[in-house]
Every structure is written in structure tokens, then in C-alpha cells.
Amino acid sequence: MIGFIDTITQLDQDLFFFFNGKHSPFWDIIMALFTRTEYWALLYLTILGFIIRNYRAKAVVILVLLAVSIVICDQFSGLIKDATQRLRPSHDPAIQHLVHNVLTKGGLYSYFSAHAANTFAVATFTSLLFRRLQYGIFIYLWALVVSYTRIYLGLHYPLDILTGILFGVLTGWALFKLLIFVENRFLLLQFPKLTDTKLKSKEFRFIFILFLTIVITTLLVVNRLQHFNWI
């Protein structure tokens, strides 16, 4: 059993160095931005706006349970970090000199990633709510990119990310099922029903275009600033 755990740990470390080793000054800045919650604030606000507009009075319950899913992921991740006490790559004395670390070393422990759990909980909950395939593909790819930044920045191992993804998906799914239960039990007379409502095509296009605008603008600005040696 110990040998198996050692093998998994070594494989995890090897994969970390493979992904963490793919870096450049340009992508250092981009990944440092992509990993930050506030960077995506406009995207979050737009999604919340469509929830409020489409689900009206039920939006209060939806937003509360969405917030609960994030709190569960964040707090449980902290508990597991303290229980397992697996050092982040950026804090491990044995390898930290080999780690490409950008800006901050983060907290002491790494397992498992709250970023991955939070983003995948949001992706799962909202994709089940909006019931549009294009949105689901988009939001899961977004969550994957945000999760990948944690490896790029030297803050998490791939296993930290995979565990966070699994926990986030399960949490988002469970809280959505709770939402359906609450609707059927207590909000039955309030229309429209969640299962009869989905994100409109034009609403998805707005979200996607907003996302592309944010990302492309960031790429162009960072490229220009580096060209003039301002960053």
C-alpha cells in the first residue's frame, strides 16, 4: 500500500513539473490574472444577472444555494488541507527551488485545491440550471483553465486539482438537486419551473462574447505593455 502511494505521489510530482515547466514571462502575467476571482467579476455579475432576470422570485433561493456550494467547497478544502498537511510545491523544501512560482507561494498546504472545487461547483450548478449545451461546454472549459493556473503558478499538484474538480462537481450537483427539492416542496406554485426554463441563445452569446472580450483585451494589453517594457 505504501509503495502504491509513493508511486502515485511520484507520478503526481512528475506531472506537476511537466505542466509547471511550460512557462514564459507573457504567460506568467496572464495566468496570474486568470487565477484571481476578481478578474472574472464581470463574468460572474453577468451570469448572476441572467439568473435574476430569468428566475425572478426563485433567484433568491438559487443564489443562496449557489453561495452555499462555494462555501462548502472552500471550507471543506481548508479542513482537508489541515488534516493531510501536504505541503504546496512552493513550500516543499525538497523541490521548491525547482518550482516556477509566480507572485505568491500561497498558504502552506495544497491538498486539495479550493479554486478547482469552487469553479467546478459553479460550473456544474449553473450548467444544470441553464440547461444549454453550449453554456455547459463553455463554463467547464473556463473552470478547467482557472484550475490549470494553479499548477502553472506553482501552487498545486495535479492531484490537488483533480480532487478539487471531483468535489466541486459533486457539490454543485448535490446543491442543484437540493434546489429542485426545495422548488417541488415549497415553491411549487411559483412559475416558471426551473426544469421548463433555460438560458436563451442570445444570452449565451452575450456571456461568450463578454468572455472573449475580457480575455482578448487582456492578451493584447499585456502584449503591448511587454513590447514597450512597461511590465
From TrEMBL:
Transmembrane segments: 29-52, 59-80, 108-130, 137-155, 161-182, 203-222
Domain Phosphatidic acid phosphatase type 2/haloperoxidase positions: 60-176
Coiled coil: none
Keyword Mitochondrion: no
SMART domains with a match to the protein in the record: acidPPc
Keyword Transmembrane helix: yes
Keywords carried by this UniProt record: Membrane, Transmembrane, Transmembrane helix
Gene3D superfamilies referenced in this protein's UniProt entry, alphabetically: Phosphatidic acid phosphatase type 2/haloperoxidase (1.20.144.10)
InterPro entries reported in the protein's UniProt record: PAP2/HPO (IPR000326), PAP2/HPO_sf (IPR036938)
Name used for this protein in its record: Phosphatase PAP2 family protein
Source organism: Gaoshiqia sediminis
Lineage: Bacteria, Pseudomonadati, Bacteroidota, Bacteroidia, Marinilabiliales
